[in-house]
């Protein structure tokens, strides 16, 4: 298993897909050889913004704390801990987070050992964990989980969502998740214990997505109009924010929360959909139905 890079740059940077590809070797994917950090540092580009949120030190400390906290357990459990803290440390806009080059550099230049630890403990790491789409790349998937499942400044729904691996593995790919009441209503079913397993999450996701073809969730359960100012103020406050707490959850942007009535309405609707959804392995009743 590889260890911390011998050289960690002071600042996050941008690493193109083309340049990233040449450093994703079989040795790295098998956890047997690290990334030539000095050589990689020569092909990166600076971020278009400056300031505290570009510093690599807090990110490096965060992934090391995650590995220490969950060493000896299942690395998958680290997702729920790391996702909100990664989001609150980076303080990115969605536009910034959509740049794959940032995630390439974080995975290969700052924390390749974390990617191997998290995704390669039992088998070879998939290359997409280093350089891949947002729902696959090791750090991008965590950031987007936190972004799409938080409720304003409240990261607790993110912790619940990350607690079932099929949420980032499947639900994160659904367009309907971009509607906050929909995402939070699905989390509500997990919080109440109605949906607990990966198979049940998959069944719920399919049912909710299929229903969205005929039922416009944003019409029957509207969200508040999003105001970009709290998010911008949160990003600007990064200069004086300090490290995120380890034992308590950090606070996200002070945006207005999703309307509770919309979340409740959809949670009730999704519960009905889930009751009729085929779940692989669910015991059939006397009528031969799931």
TrEMBL record:
InterPro entries: DUF6339. Pfam families: DUF6339. It comes from the Bacteria. Residues 238-261 are annotated as: Disordered. This is Uncharacterized protein.
